[in-house]
Amino acid sequence: MAAGAAAGGAGAAAALWSEVNRCGQNGDFARALKSVNKILQISKDDVTALQCKVVCLIQNGSFKEALGVINTHTKVLTSDIIAFEKAYCEYRLNRIENALKTIQSASQQTDKLKELYGQVLYRLERYDDCLAAYRDLIRNSQDEYEEERKTNLSAVVAAQSTWEKVMPEDLGLREATYELCYNSACALIGQGKLNEAMKKLQKAEELCRQSLSEDSDVTEEDIEAELAIIHGQMAYIMQLQGRTEDALQLYNQIIKLKPTDVGLLAVIANNIITINKDQNVFDSKKKVKLTNAEGVEHKLSKKQLQAIEFNKALLAMYTNQADQCRKLSASLQSQSPEHLLPVLIQAAQLCREKQHAKAVGLLQDFAEQHPANAAEIKLTMAQLKIAQGSVTKACMILRSIEELQHKPGMVSALVTMYSHEEDIDSAIEVFTQAIQWYQQFQPKSPVHLSLIREAANFKLKHGRKKEAISDLEELWKQNPKDVHTLAQLISAYSLVDPEKAKVLSKHLPSSDTMSLKVDVDALENSHGATYVRKKAGKLTGDNQQKEPGQGDVKKKKKKKKGKLPKNYDPKVTPDPERWLPMRERSYYRGRKKGKKKDQVGKGTQGSTTTGSSELDASRTASSPPTSPRPGSAAAVSATSNVIPPRHQKPAGAPATKKKQQQKKKKGAKGGW
C-alpha cells in the first residue's frame, strides 16, 4: 500500500511539473503558481519548486511576497541559488542599499547580477562606478540587449553632466534610437548648450513618432504619452532661455495628458511653481500637490527632490504660512547643514516679520560655523544692513570678505557707499588696499592700472590733489608714452604747481605729429550727432541745372488754391475780425430782445430777468403808473409800446406749435 501511494504521488508531481512548464512557456504565471503550490504540498522543501514559486510571484508583480518566501526558506534557498531574485525584489521594493549588499555578497557574479548592479549604482547616484560597470558589460557581452546597455550608458553620462557638472566624453554611440537622442540632449543641457540640445530633442521626437507609428496597435494618445518626457525637456530649455510663456503653455499641455509617470508630473509642477514665483500663488498651491504624489521620491534624484522642497518652503513664505516655512527650512537644514538656501529662507521669513536683527544674527552664526560659505552669507548680511539704513556697518561687513576685497565690483560698491556717507578717507583706503593687493600679486594686470587711474580721479574730485598727482606719476612712470595720463598729470599740476605743469607740457607731442585719422564728415553725419554741417550750395551756373539723366531732381509741390466762400465778393473788403468768435467782435451788440425763453435761467442764482416785469399784475395797463426814478428814461421808452393784456397772444403758443410739428416729423421719420 505504501509503495503504491508513493508511485501515485510521483505520477501526480510529474503531471504538475509538465503543467508548470506549459504555463511558463505560455506566460500564464498565475496558473503556473497554482501548480507549484500543489507540488510544494507534496514536497514542501523542493528547491526547484520554491525557485519556481519565487519566479512566478516576481512575474506577477508580487515582490514583497516573493521576498517573504526567500527569507522563510533561507536554509534551502541559499544566496548562491537565489541571489539575483532576492536582489531584484529588494530593488523593485526600493530597498536599494539592501539590494547592493545582496549582489556584493553573491559568490558568483553572473551577467544578470552585473546588469542589476549597474541599475543599483545608478539609483544610488554613484555614477562613476555605474559607468565602469556598463562599459565592462558592453565589452564582455554579445546578445540582443546591447542597444539597451548603450542607452543606459548614455543615461549615466547625461546624469554626470547634469548633476555633477562633469564634461561628458564622446562615447561614439550612434544615435539611432530616440532614447539615445534624448539622453544626448540631456547631456548638452548640463553643459549649457541649449540650442544644440533643442535640435537633439526635435530629432528624438521625430524618431519616436517613426518608431511607434510602425506598430498598428499604438494609438495617437499612446504616442503623445511617450513624447511627454521629450516635450517636458523642451519646455525646460524654453524656460532656461527666458521664453517662460511658451514653456508654461507646453507644461500645461503635458499635464492635461495626465501621464502615468509621477516623476515627470512632479518635475513639471515644480518648474511651473518656479515660473510663478510670488505671483499666481493659487495655481502654485494646486501644482504643489503633484509633487507630493506617492512614489515620487523613488523616481527623482536627490538634487531634484531637494529643489522641490526648497520651492515648497518658498511658497509657504509667499503665502504667509510662517510656521510651515520655518518647519520646512529647518528640515532642509538638518538634511544639508552646509547648504545656503535653508538659512537664507529662514532669514527672509524673519525679515518679512520685521525681525531684521534676528535675521542678521542667524546669518552671522551660519557664517561662523561654515567659513566656506561665509562670503555669500556676508553679502546677504550687508544687504540687510543697507535695508535698515546702516550703510557704515554694511561696509564693515563687506570689507571683512577677504577674498572679494580687491575685486573691482567690490571696490566700486564700497567707494560709492562711503561717498554717500561722506567718508572720503575710508573710500581712499579701499582704493589703496586694492592697489596694494594687485601690486603684490598681479602688478601687470590691466585692473591694477585701471584702479590707480580711478583712485586719482576720485582724489581730484574730492580735493586731494597731491595724492592724485602721486598716483598719476606712478601711472606715467609705468607707461611714459601714455598721452592721456600725461594730460591728466599736467591738468592736476596746473592746480597746484603751474611751473611744473609747463615743464611737463613739453613732453606732449606736437599737433603736427598727432594724426587723429578722424573722418569729420562721417562723424558729423553719424547717428546721434548734435550738429550736422549743411553742405554749401554750388554757385556755378553750369552746376545749377542738371542735365536729364544726371540724377533725380526733387519737384516742388504746387500749392493748392484755397476754396472761397460761395457768397464771396472780390470788390468787398473781407471782415478783419472774421476769425474771431461773434461775441468777441467789436460790432457785436447782443441778441435781440423779446426772446424770453432764451433769457430764462441766465445770470446768478435767484436773480430775475428784465422781462419778469411783464408777469407782474401791478405793472399792467390798468394799474396806475409809477413815477419814474431819476435816470430811468431809457426804461420808460422801452416799455411805452407795451400791448394791453387782452390783445396779447398766449405766452409760448407759437413755440408749442413748433414743438408739436417737430414731434410729428420725428414720429414719421422714426416709423411709429
Please tell me about this protein's structure.
The protein is 64% helix and 0% strand. It contains 33 helices and no strands. 25% of the residues are buried. The N terminus and C terminus are likely disordered. One of its GO terms (biological process) is SRP-dependent cotranslational protein targeting to membrane. Belongs to the SRP72 family. GO terms for molecular function: 7S RNA binding; ribosome binding. It is found in: Cytoplasm; Endoplasmic reticulum.
Mean pLDDT: 81
Radius of gyration: 48 Å
Structural class: mainly alpha
Oligomer: single chain
The total count of helices amounts to 33
Number of strand elements: 0
Uncertain segments of ≥5 residues (pLDDT<50)?
1-7, 607-672
Summarize the amount of helix as a percent range.
55-70%
Shape: extended
Percent of residues in β-strands: under 5%
Distance between the termini: 119 Å
Major sheet characteristics: none
Key terms:
33 helices; 0% strand; disordered C terminus; single chain; extended; disordered N terminus; 64% helix; 672 residues; mainly alpha
